[in-house]
Each structure stands twice: as C-alpha cells, then as structure tokens.
Write the structure tokens for this entry.
Amino acid sequence: MTRRLLRTPQGLAVLLGLTVVVAATVLGPAVFGDAASTRNIPDRQLPASLAHLFGTDNLGRDLFARVIVATRLSVLLTLGAVGISVAGGVTLGVTAAVLPRPLRRLVTAFIDILLSFPWLLLALFFSVIWGTTATGAMLAIGFAGIPVFARLVATLASSVANTDYVRAARLLGSSPVRTAMLHVLPNILPPLVVNTAAHASVTLLSFAALSFLGLGVQAPEYDWGRLLNEGARSIYLEPMAAIGPGIAIVLTGVLFALLGELLSEDRPRTVPSRAVIRAGDAAAPDGDALVTVTDLRVSFPAGDGSLVERVHGVDLTIRPGEVVGVVGESGSGKSVTAMAIAGLLGPEAQVAAGQLSFDGIDMRGRFSAAQRRRLGLEQAMIFQDPLSSLNPSLTVGRQLTEVSEVHGGLGRGAATRRALEALALVRIPEPLRRIRQLPHEFSGGMRQRAMIAMGLMGSPRLIVADEPTTALDVTVQRQVLHALHDARLRTGAAILLISHDIALVSGFCDRVVVMRDGVVVERLDADRLDEARHPYTRGLIACVPDMTTDRDRPLPVIGVAADEEVPV
Amino acid sequence: MTTPPSVLTSAPLLEKAAGRSIFVLHRLARAAVSFVIVFVAAFLMVQLVPGDPVRAALGPTAPVATVAALRAQLGLDQPLVDRFTAYAGGLLHGDLGMSITSQRPVAEMLAERLPTTLTIAVAALLVAVVGAFPLGVATAVSARGARHRGLDLAVSGLLGVLIAIPNFLLAVLFIATLSIGLGAFPPAGWGTPSQAVLPVLALAIGPLAYLARIVHIEMLRVLDAPYLTTARSKRLPGRLIHLRHALPNIVAATLTAGGVVLVGLVAGTVLIETVFTVPGIGSTIVSSITARDYPLIQGVVIVYALLVLGTNLLIDLALVILDPRSTIAEA
C-alpha cells in the first residue's frame, strides 16, 4: 500500500495531500489560531490580497487562517460520522448475513428501502431529532450513512458466508457470532477499507452541506461549511470569501475519493507506443482472385503498451465461389486473419500487408461511399456466438432489412418481403411472426440462421463464417451448415469458414488452410487431407475419432505430437 | 464426462408479459411499503426528539401556558395510537396539521410551493439526461481504441471535476462568476426564466457529468460487443451504428446505474432553493428545522419522500419500457 502510494504520480499526490491535511488538522489551530481569531475592525472585509489570500471577514479576521484552522473540526467531524456509519453498517450487515433466511430477507429489504432515499433527506430527518449542533449533525450524517455500509457488508458477508470454509466452520459447531468474527469479518475487510475512504469523501461534502445550510456547526465554532455559509453572505463584496472554503472542501473531498481509488486498484501503467510495422513485399496478385492476402501481419497493443504481433505474414487467396476452410486451435490467428479480410478489426489493431483486397477494394484503408455500399451488399459475416452477434434491442426484421434499405435502395415494404424470403430460405418457420421478434426470442441455431439470412439480403460474393457452429449443439450444427450450404448454392458466394474442427471443415470446404501461432503451416485440398505432411496437421486429423478408433487409448495431444516431430 | 447444460435451451420464457407486470407490481409494492415506513417515521419523529419536544421547540424560558397550548395543538397530550389514527386520517383528507410558526395549514403552504420545486427538479432532470447522452456517446466513440488521447483526458478530467464539486458550491460559484462577475443572470429570486437558469444548471451539472461518465463507460462496452461488429460488417453509416445499434443498448444500464444520482438531484433542491432563495418546498425545510416547526417538517418529509419514490418509480417504468429483454415483441 505504501509502496503503491510512492510509485505512481497519483499516489505521490495523494500522499502529499494527506500530509497537508493531517498537518493542518494537528498544527493548524496552533500556528494560525491567532490570525484566525484576532479581530481587526479597521481591516474588516478586505478583498483578497497576498497578505490575506481569501480576504478578511466582517470582524477583520484573516479568512485563509480560518480555513486552515477549520480543517481540524471538519476532518474530525467527518471521521466521527464515518466511524458511526461503518460501525452501524457492519453491525447491521453482519447481523443480516448470519440471520436465518426469512429474517435476513426482511432486514435487507429494509436496508434497500433506506438506500432509496438520498443521504440529505435522511440527514435532515435525523437532524430534526438531534438538533442543529455539530454533534447532532455528526450523528445525523453518520446514521444516514449506515444503510450504505449495511448493504455493502451484507452483500460481501453473504458471499463469504456461502464459501466452503464458512460452511465447514458451521458444521463443526461454530456459533454464528464466532463465525462472523473469525471467518466473515477478516475476509470482507479489504473492500470495506476501500469503501470507507470513498465514503469519507461523501461525508465531508455532506457536512459542508449541512453546515452551509446552517444546520451543522454553529457560531462561534466554524468548519468549512460554516465559513462557506458566511462567505456566501458577503459574496457581493468578496467572492474569495466563499470560494476559499469551497476549494478546501473540494480538494479534501477529491483527496479522500482518490485515496479510495488507489486502495481499490493496482493499475498497471500503460505507455502508449507507436511502433512502426514493416510492410511486407508485395507479391504478385492473382488476377481472378476474389480475396487476395499477401504477407498479412496484425499486431495488438499488449498490457504494457508494447505491440505484440499475432499474425506473422499470412498469404491467402480465395477465388469466386470457392469454399476455403481455415483450421487451427484458439490463438492460431485464424479469426484475426478473417476479421482483417473483412476489414473489421478494431482501431487498436495494427494491420500491415503486401496486399489485402476484396475484389479490388483495399481493405486496409478507409472506404469511399461506393466501396462501403459494395462491401455492405457483397460481404456477409457469421460469428461464433449467436447470443451476442445479433443486436438485443432491435427486431430481427429491422436487422435484416437495413442493409437492403441503406445500401440496396429498397423501400421498407420491398425490404421486408426480401427479409421474409431470406428467413424462409434458411428454413426459419413462420417468418411472418419471427420477423417481428427480438433476438432473445430465437434459439441459438435460429439466430445463427438469421445471421445467414442477413447475409442473403444483399448479393453476397463472400461469406465469412467465424466458428459458426462452435457454440451450438451437434444437431443444430447440421441445420446451420445446411443453411450455409443452401446460401452458397443460391448466391454462388465464396465462403471463408474458420473452425478448429478439421472434420467439419474437410466435409464442407474445397480447400483447407492450416494455421498455427499466426502462420500458415499447410495448404491442402479438402479431399486429400490424408496426404498432410505437416505433423501439426496430422495431429489435428488424428484427434478426430472415427468408427475404428480404439476407445481405450487416450486421444493424441496435438502440442506434444507436433513438437516431438517438428525439427527445429 | 457429462455434457454441460446448454445455455441455448434456457429460453427466457418468464421474461415476457408476465415478467414485466410482476416487475411493475413488485416495484409498486415496494414504493407503497417505503411510503408507509416514511410516514410512520415522520409521525414518530416528534417522539424521538430527546426530552420534551415542545420545550425543545419553544426554549426553556417559554411560559407554561404557551407550552401547554402547543402541546395540545400537536396533540401530544393524547395517547400515541389516537394521535396516529388522527394523523393518518388527516393525510387521507389532505390535512397535514397547522404550521407552528405561520399558523397556516401545512398542506396549503406545501401546495403553494410544490410547483416551483417540481419545475426546478424536472427541468434539471431533463437537462442532466438530455445533456449526458450526447456527451457520453461522443466521448466514448472518440475514445475507442485510444485515439484522441489528449482530448479524452481533458474531457474525463473536466467531468471528474464537475462530479467532485457539490451542487451548493457550484451554485455559489455561479453567483460569484456568472451573476456578480458578468451580470448575465440574476443571483436570486424566482419567477422569470432568466432566474431559473442558474438554479437549474447548478442542480443539473453534477448529475449530468456523472451520467455522462456512465454513458461513456457503457458505450465503450457496447462498442466492443459482437453485435456492433455485425453492424459494422453491414458498413452502415456511423450515425446508424451509434444511434440505432449502440444507443438503445446502453439506456437501461445507464438508467439503472444513474438512478441514484437522479434521485439525489431531487433532494438537491433543498440546497439549491436555499442558495438562490427560491420559494419552493426545499427552502422551507431549513427554517422549519431551526424553528422546530414539527408539523411543517413532517409535511416536507412526506412530500420529499413522495418525490423520491415517484422518481424511482419513473425510472423503473422507463426501464420496463426501454429494456428489450423484458419487452414483448410489438404486435
């Protein structure tokens, strides 16, 4: 914790601020007490100057000195109120956590109701009871904060209370109180400390607000809120009289909030870097290719700010109507390659290539309006997770029709008719009803077929399917592949199928490209997989069990199989 | 090895019409229970004052006859249960008792002042919500992928400062600069539109900045969602991607997380009305607490509780309407 404070600039600033606040709290009244209390009528209500940074009040007392002296009362009252909130909240929260279930629900419901009222209303309510004094305000704000901590502790404690070791302690006959003290409290302490610091910030501001309203500290005593109250009255003469205490309030509030933030997280520092990526030598483009990729390299920024290259010089060509499968395990760079071909990598990705084009459109740069239109109509995407690749807020119909409306120039009616056809083509029953539904009303397989239908809304020439069946049941997988197959027959589009499943790819594709660790290790025709030379490909094939596989033997492990045989 | 249960088969059947009405009923019941608790607490408040509440209000030097008269007026000479039924019955007829200091019916005083408070609160709510969304969306779109680093740091720094400054301080600052310094707006009073500008701004800016930050964070989350990649793969114009595909998906989360600030904004009228001497309900609370005008305090507490509960309910209803997962398809 100390080390963290000293290491970052933010930590140093917080440490410095804390030192100043503690010094002002301890030494302030001794050092500035005289200047803060000496009445000097000739110098009354002076404007701000170097001698009086915040000016003087109506009795000629130096306001800067008064702000410093007020630190002690402001901070002590804040600490007192936070103490009340934490003590009350922990008691209530832990009690709630160890109570039997019906009682616990009752208490937490009550806490929730209290939480729905802003602290100011609770504090005002309590200050009616305890009167408008400094102590009354401390009690009021302290009590107003209890629900916050009670909720926090109840949540934390119930998550700890359900862990195995607490259950074990209970089974061994540990009493609820003993369990709470020995097992629950120590485990919720760190988040509690963090929230206490953050809550101190809120409490300080609350105190300032109450004193500012005249309901907190009363003259002749003064805290920052009281000074702000007095300063606001003479704001026409000298704005600094009000702004001075205001600065103290905000800075200290921010200080406590920052302390809470520092305690809560150990952020790794990120240094932005601008690494230059070498563009590969351009290879001779294939004249009639639909997709041409040469020496594709893609890098991403790592946590420490450096760039990590994930795809190292991939070459790939897809001819019109061809079905190409890219196989590899996760992390092999196959999805990144597919997204680069579609031009859909995020802005953080650094893409370099000799050539990266789709039917004459350079996929590295920005697109013209005409190119966007063509890409919108001619490229279709299907992603792995059908739960998240459709927009949960828009009806399936809306998501289908928009390509036709935006790029195809169709009216609403014509686009809807086309969407109905597309849904029928991917064999979604009752398209008229389904088109008005939201994605969450579709099953996973239906969503994936809806994605395919979405691609059919234009005039697709390339369908990029990135693990389209991985998240689905085996029976549903077949339906989706069927739909993809129908889509291809209907449109003649080329398909780029990304998968980790070599059996699926070999059955569906014309050609197979095997990737590993960001490079292409082998290219094969799908019907000649048995001729695979690369040990990694052979490993992948060996992993697929068939009817003759001896089920008593363990399946081969790819990494080992490949590493053993690859000469380095 | 067992097959894990498929996530795909757990279709959200409950989250249809039934789910929506259960949610609304649940929230309504909760609001009703909350109100009963507040009502009982407001009634018992006088009881909880240490010592003699009447002496506390009138001071130790007040003549015995005055004390007895006030005691009778507050009904403190009657049994607790009788008083509670009388108070609850009065509430049903809109009778909240007589103010001690002004000797006028509390309900009448509050009814005069309620429209002012509502005007400020609703205007500030609108400013906060309407301002936060464009700001949060724009900053998120600009910040995605760490472009425009300098600008993003400046904006998030500014938002952080605006969140840290409490509304009453902002109000004082506005008076010092915009009102006294530039003479742009009147520093106090109520009645003309120009007098409303500073109170509404002072009340709205903190919640606006806080909401904008939530919108920013939510938007960054949604911009990286797979369905946004789907939208980008359709090469839609940025306007459609951000407004049609991203925005609807952040509203529910933003309102859920921002509800607390919006409710806090309602309570903030107490401070703002006091600073700008606006004749609303909030500005009566300080004088009534100082004077221990119990009936008036009770009335103010009940009205504010209703405002807070009403705001909470509005947010919940907005969630029901806006959250697609709890919505049935529009037929």
In short: The first strand of chain A starts at residue 291 and ends at 301. The CA atoms of residues 202 and 455 of chain A lie 52 Å apart. The mean pLDDT of chain A is 79.
